[in-house]
Amino acid sequence: MLKDFSIFLWGLKLGALVNLAFLAHALGPSSAGLAPQVLVPAVILFGVSAFRCVFPLRYEDHVVFHDTPLSSVFLTRLLATFSEVAYIYLLSHVIRLLNVDRVGWIDALSWLMVLQVIVSQGFVWRAILTEQLAFYFYEELGWFVIIAANTIASAYLHATVDPQEGHRLLLQVNLAFGALYLPWQCFHLRALLLDARAGGEAAKPRAVRGQELAAGLRSSIEVRNRRTDGESWGGLVGLTWMVGYWATLIPGWVHLIVRVFAE
User: Fold this and answer.
1) Same-domain status, 106 and 118
2) Phi/psi class of residue 186: alpha, beta or left (left: φ > 0; alpha: ψ in -120 to 50)?
3) What is the Cα gyration radius of the chain?
4) Does residue 116 contact residue 124 with C-beta atoms inside 8 Å?
5) Residue-level pLDDT at 240
6) Treating both helix axes as pointing N-terminal to C-terminal, what angle do 210-222 and 104-130 enclose, rounded to 10 degrees?
7) Dihedral through CA 98, CA 103, CA 109, CA 114, nearest 10?
8) Is the pLDDT assigned to residue 202 strictly greater than 60?
9) Are residues 182 and 160 in the same domain?
10) What is the secondary structure of 11-52 as a DSSP string?
11) Could you give the CA distance from residue 238 to residue 217 in angstroms, rounded to a whole number?
12) Domain range enclosing 198
């Protein structure tokens, strides 16, 4: 395992070029017929992912690669909030589009995904403002629920409907992602729980006062700790998360959706 992530963090900037290429395609003439429900979330995801590849950071301990105001936890989390809600809405919209028989519980699962991602935003903001690691666990537990719902709905649609070839591919990608992500997320959740316990936290976070939240807000704007060691960046879990989320799997997934519906 690499002890210093400097080369990796520089290499992550290649992911910005990938996202910008995807963004150019989404805004190009070949995608002129895209519905706004597909185009707008995709544009937000590509733009924010490119930004995060250039200015990577880790919320815990305010770890940054570039000591610049653009690497503030507050700014990055603000952008990520819009990005995460947007692309989960996009995934849920795809499920509803492919639910041609209008099966009620499938639509309900798709809207559960949207509701859960909004709830998870509350947890991650609370984690940042209070510096209580337990909230990160609850946020990521919400992501497990989101992908599980997407996987279950996709499995049903793949088995029961007869979509056209491109739509079937989207369902197969949903299933493949769920098969990879859900076991990985179990390890991630365990690591987050261990981190919280190592920090002396109980599973149930403590109550905080308004003054603590205000101090946490100032800290999220002003505090930046430039580090390049692997431990500060979350080790192998942190590495795979950054590559998959910002530079490869998630942008590629959304790009595939854009291509399929542009056709």
Assistant:
1) yes
2) alpha
3) 19
4) no
5) 87
6) 90
7) 60
8) no
9) yes
10) HTTHHHHHHHHHHHHHHSGGGTT--HHHHHHHHHHHHHHHHH
11) 24
12) 101-223
Q: Which residues pair with 64 in a beta bridge?
A: 57, 226
Number of Cβ atoms within 10 Å of the Cβ of 156:
17
Decide if pLDDT at 20 tops 90: yes
Residue 94 located in a structural domain: no
Contact predicate 254/18, CB 8 Å: no
Cα–Cα distance between 136 and 127 in angstroms, integer?
A: 6
Structure-token pair, residue 42: 């995709």
Q: Is the pLDDT of residue 205 over 80?
A: no
- Assess if residue 162 is contained within a domain: yes
142 in the same domain as 51: no
Backbone phi, psi, residue 4, to 5°: -120, 130
Instruction: Give one DSSP letter per residue of 79-107, joined into a string.
Output: HHHHHHHHHHHHHHHHHHHH-TT--HHHH
Q: Does residue 203 register a pLDDT over 90?
A: no
Distance of CA 258 to the CA centre of its chain: 18
| 216 and 237 together in one domain | no
Residues 6+ apart with CB under 8 A from 135: 123, 124, 126, 127, 205
8 A C-beta contact, residue 128 and residue 220: yes
Q: Which residues pair with 226 in a beta bridge?
A: 64
Q: Which amino acid is it at 68?
A: T
Euclidean distance between CA atoms 52 and 152, whole angstroms: 30
For the chain, give the percent of residues with pLDDT over 70: 95
Looking at the structure, tell me whether residues 133 and 189 fall in a common domain. yes
Q: Is the pLDDT of residue 162 over 90?
A: no
The amino acid sitting at 247 is A
Give the pairing of strands 225-226 and 57-58.
unpaired
The predicted model scores a pTM of: 0.92
